[in-house]
Amino acid sequence: MNLSFPRWITSVYWAGIIATASLLLTFYLLYNAAASRELDEISSEINDLKRLNYAINEAILSHSSGDTLHYDHITRATQAFELRINRILDHSLAEADDHLANLWNSFQQSAGVRLQMIETYKSHYSLLHNSSAYFLMIARQARALPVFTTPLEAEKQHQLEELILGIQKLMAFTHTDQVPVENIISALDHNLSSITNRSLISLIQSAVSHARILMRTRNEINEVFDNINGRQTTRLLDQLQSAVIDIQRTQLQQAAEYRQMMAATSLLLLLMIGALVYRQSGLVRQLAASKQILELQNLALDKHAIVSEANVRGEITYVNDQFVNISGYSRDELLGENHRLVNSGAHDRAFFKKLWQTIARGDTWHGEIRNQKKNGDYYWVDASIVPITDSSGRVEKYISIRTDITEEKNNTARKLYKQANFSDVTGLPNRYYAENAIQNLLKNKVRLMAAMLDIADLRRVNSSLGYVEGDQLLRCCAKRLNNIPGDSATFCDLGGGHFLFFAEITEQQDPHQLSADWYEKIAFTMKEPIAVGPANLLIRFHLGFSISTEETKSAALLMSAAHSALSRAKDNRTLSYFIAGDSQSGSQIDSLLLEAALQQAVKSGRLTVNYQPQIDVRTGHVKGMEALVRWKDDKLGWVSPELFINIAEKSDLILDIGRLVLKTAIYQLRDFQLAGMKNVRMSVNLSPRQIYDKGLIAEICMLADSASVDLRDLELELTEGVLIDDSEDVLYQLLKLKDLGISLALDDFGTGYSALSYLQKYSFDILKIDKAFVSGMEDSARKQEMVAAIIAMARAMNMTIIAEGVETEVEAALLARLGCDLYQGYLYARPMPADDLIDWFQGYQQLQPDNDRSFA
Amino acid sequence: MPERNLPLLLSLLWTLWIPAALACTPDTHEPLVPLTESPRQDPALVSLGRDLFHDVRLSADNSISCATCHPIDRGGADQLALSVGIKGQFGTRNTPTVLNAALNYRQFWDGRSATLEDQAMQPVTTPHEMGSDWPEVFAKLQQDPDLVARFRTAFPGTPTLTQDNLTKALASYERSLIIGNSPFDRYLCGQTDAISPAARSGYQLFKDIGCSACHQGQNVGGNMFEKVGIVIPAEGSIFEDDDPGRFAQTGNPEDRFEFRVPPLRNVALTPPYFHNGKVGSLKDAVQLMAHHQLGRDLSETQLSDIVEFLNTLTSVEPQ
Prior knowledge:
The complex is a heterodimer of chains A (856) and B (319).
Chain A: H1 7-34, H2 38-64, H3 72-90, H4 98-144, H5 151-172, H6 179-189, H7 198-228, H8 231-304, E1 306-311, E2 316-319, H9 321-327, H10 331-334, H11 349-360, E3 365-372, E4 378-389, E5 395-404, H12 406-421, H13 431-443, E6 448-455, H14 458-464, H15 467-482, E7 490-495, E8 498-504, H16 511-525, E9 530-532, E10 535-537, E11 541-547, H17 555-572, E12 576-579, H18 591-603, E13 607-616, E14 622-633, E15 637-639, H19 641-648, H20 653-674, E16 681-685, H21 688-692, H22 696-706, E17 714-718, H23 721-724, H24 728-739, E18 743-749, H25 756-762, E19 766-769, H26 771-774, H27 781-796, E20 800-803, H28 809-818, E21 822-823, H29 834-847, H30 851-854
Parallel strand pairs in A: 11-12, 14-16, 16-17, 17-18, 18-19, 19-20, 20-21
Antiparallel strand pairs in A: 1-2, 1-5, 3-4, 4-5, 6-8, 6-11, 7-8, 9-10, 13-14, 13-21, 14-15
Helix pairs in contact in A: 1-8, 2-3, 2-8, 3-4, 4-5, 4-7, 4-8, 5-6, 5-7, 6-7, 14-15, 20-22
Chain B: H1 2-16, H2 43-53, H3 66-69, H4 116-125, H5 134-142, H6 145-154, H7 163-175, H8 183-188, H9 197-208, H10 211-214, E1 225-227, H11 247-250, E2 258-260, H12 282-294, H13 300-311
Antiparallel strand pairs in B: 1-2
Helix pairs in contact in B: 2-7, 4-7, 9-13, 12-13
């Protein structure tokens, strides 16, 4: 809200007002000081002093002129004068001004001298008065004396008379010369002893002594009288007064200046306040406007949001209508209640703890909360809880603004569900969905068929045309699959070109028939080429089926069985299916559990290796044996190698297993040879991962060395999958193996990407015909032809041919006739532990007619 | 009704207005001036001053008040050569009367105080007089709520119990002790037969020989300083002592042996005489004064006439 200036401008403005006001006050104080009435008082005191000064003169004059015969007037005047001086002293006038102070000091001094002189005047005047009075008496007495006739006495009498006259004259005329009188006194005083008349002597003595007092006092009085008039004091008082007036004048001028300053600053202050008031009124208008905006915003907020206020204890102190409406509680029910009232229990204790910690320290909490209505329904809110703090930063209350996001939340949930459950490429349900769905169905003891479908060309499309085209291909496939009419199967996209579909089947339905039917349907729907980018592609696919049994409890198991079937189908290029409930994988386990168990088994050496002999077709001699890994879990029982190798191949476990089998097999070969089996080779399966392991060759050499086994007695079996990558590394590795004298066998020939070029390139020593071609051979001319072709080809390439899965004499005879070199199968021996094999070997050897030969 | 109220009215008038008993226009050519009226005083202040004047709490050991040395009913002085302060200590000069002291332009024998207020505070702290100090005095007075209340009445505003206010009250009371109404006042106002013929001739003599040159004015003295033994030096007389007089105050050698001329009103009531109180008889005092100050030796008749005159200066308190 842009209501006010920036803070600093306001501050400066206020500082200006305060400064101006202070200035005004200062001027006022200065003005007051300047216009002080103190000097007026001093001025009037000085006037008083002047008056009193004159009064003293008047009193003295009144006395000296004989108008009054006492000193009361004088003393009253001097006392008043003195007291007034002391009173002015109290004003501490001296502090005001140096000039004034100097004048005042001079005046005080002068006044002191004057008063002192007045005292002198008083005492001397009394003396003079008395002496003159006394002299009058002497004069009378002298005149009453008889006239002396003796010359001396007559002369003295005459001189006395002269003295009396002289003194009278002196007393009458103040300026009369004293010298003649002094001469007379000297004359009178002279030669007194010659006088005989006692009364004359006494009279002369008194007259002389009093005359002397008179003369002296008169002198002093004359002296004093000149200074008693206070001219000096009066002059100083005048000076003081004019000095005071000067100061007053200056002060008045200053006062006038300060008055002007006051007027100016007052005006300035008035203007500033006026401006402030003007702006303030503007602010008030703006405030009113913003208040209206605020109200409207509040209204809008109320329409939009659920607003509530709570005190620090979490008790509701305010709710808006939205809150009431959505919660279903009345306002009265809500106010004073804790917010827990609408708690739905969806969030745990830690959630609320964190919330409270956030807002209690003054931070806004924001998040989504599920609340519960009075009727028990839930609603989701997006909540901001804002702590309102007081000036000291302590939280006063909380304002909560929430918006109803129930719908979005539901949408989101749907979206999340979709994301979690459906492929974003094809829109088909994904693995997660599939697992859940299958699990649910399995839980209900439903017989299920699951099929894994692999789009063979996806990898090529992705690498040559791009992933967009790959996705396009997938979408097209998914669409076609989904459009397959008839049976209701759920198609899922597992990603990477793998589709899974599953359907409920009845007990009566035959797995073979079912899988064949599905194969037909899918082949039909995929028959048409698909336009991907510039190319029209013919879609090749593989299918692997698995069927649940009563014991199948894990979707993972069913799916992994399907996957195994798929793998096999890929290898064999045939339709493949597994019964998930087969003895080897009956327990309810999923792949992860299986992997964990497998890991444990590898570590603790639970994996065992069985050996299956390979028999020479022509001589019947045991020429070699294939090491086959077996796993019997405590809980799961025997786990199918198809299953656990499949799992192991997804992790590094396969390397451990491979290493284990290699080691066991090599050492066992030595044991076998020691047990009397000469010219027997050990054949070990290598997984593709092992081929890529750079340390493989060194490991084999080391094992063979430590077991004292000839590398030429070692045979490694590889599947066609290894060759798909057509990598130089693989070629190099295989050539290296061959250089060491190790024979290489191509396993499961005819089930995968068997290509003649590979055979040539990698120069395998041995070719193993897959069981799929062998079993049921006698009934299938086609199979016989194929086997014949394979054998012919192998022969041409100078390869030894081993037939796997030979179970019947007929098959054996057929294979012998077709030119197979070695048999492997139940007809002769099933895979068995080493000890059993040794027993078997000894038994078998005795059956052989020409056992000597075979051990030659 | 009015008749019954008349005495009350009169007495009221009396307290508010203390006019002299006589109204006169005195002869201005007399050195002595009749005392016809005294200035009006605030009665509350006077009453407070009176009580303080008689208050022993002003002394350190609560043994003496102002009135101890200045008994109002006995001429305002204690008739001792030297007064006795706390713990039996003697003063240094004879106690002057407090009656009409307000008329003196200086207080004390050496005239060191210009005002009654200044005078009143000095004995309180003088060690051989009341020997107290102000905080102690006020601590004591503070415990008297009545007195404090009277102070408050007399001196509105705070603080009330101060040295200033206390001496103001005392001085105010002392100003109320201006008492004329002597036979001689009546004589000066023209009532010739107010004094005896002897007193009349004594007065004439008083003027003729020059007593009135110094003992003049309303208070018959008290308005100037004079040296003791100005004509016939004091050496060998009763005046000779180690009291330097005003010299101690001013340091001016000319002021040695100068004293304030004592006022002679009620002089008959306040023996012994002079600053050292060495002379008990008024006649002897007159004789000594005439000799040393005027260079005159008076006859018996002259002395008795003057004493007769001095007796007429004794005020008669209005009843």
